[in-house]
Design goal:
disordered C terminus; single chain; alpha+beta; six-stranded mixed beta sheet; 173 residues
Length: 173
């Protein structure tokens, strides 16, 4: 057998032998990365504005939170201060809509504002003073004085309901 022929058959055998492994790996990765039950956003793409946080810098967020009806979501608002600066001035202001799950919160909506974009007294207000929530329409409105930001809550399954259904005893037939 010629050298070129041996090499050709070697690579054909290699391709045929490894093909099922590659296909199995692709199928497994697709199944593991599927949207759905393990996706905390339940297929909803978060609505994130431009972040003003500077990468690598630690900051403190002086936020207040409020539940948004019986939806499982909460609104938060407040100023940020970088902890690596000696001054105690606020550096920027954030609003967001989150959904707590376990010890984490998943942010579905967020906006950051420079301090010169908001009224000075806003940093002293609680989130309850600036947020209204219309439960039937699921619209959250942040009234920032000079501007309003709105977000419509997505309809996502209730985690506690999912867990209780998954663990509920099933009647015997």
């Amino acid at each position: 057998m010629e050298r070129k022929s041996k090499a050709k058959w070697f690579f054909i055998g290699l391709a045929v032998g490894w093909a099922p492994i590659f296909i199995a790996a692709i199928v497994i990765l697709a199944w593991v990365n599927r949207p759905g039950h393990d996706d905390p956003f339940h297929g909803v793409r978060p609505d994130m504005g431009t972040s003003l946080h500077q990468f690598g810098r630690s900051s403190t967020w002086n936020a207040t939170h409020m539940p948004l009806g019986a939806t499982g979501f909460k609104a938060a608002a407040g100023p940020h201060r970088y902890t690596d600066e000696p001054d105690q001035d606020w550096d920027y202001y954030s609003i967001d809509v989150e959904r707590p799950e376990g010890r984490s919160s998943y942010v579905f909506f967020q906006r950051d504002f420079r301090m010169d974009e908001i009224p000075k007294d806003l940093i002293h207000k609680n989130v309850q003073d600036i947020v209204t929530f219309d439960e039937p329409s699921r619209i959250v409105t942040f009234d920032l004085g000079t501007r309003k930001e709105t977000y419509t809550l997505p309809r996502v399954p209730d985690k506690t309901l999912e867990d209780s259904v998954a663990t509920a005893p099933h009647p015997q037939s």
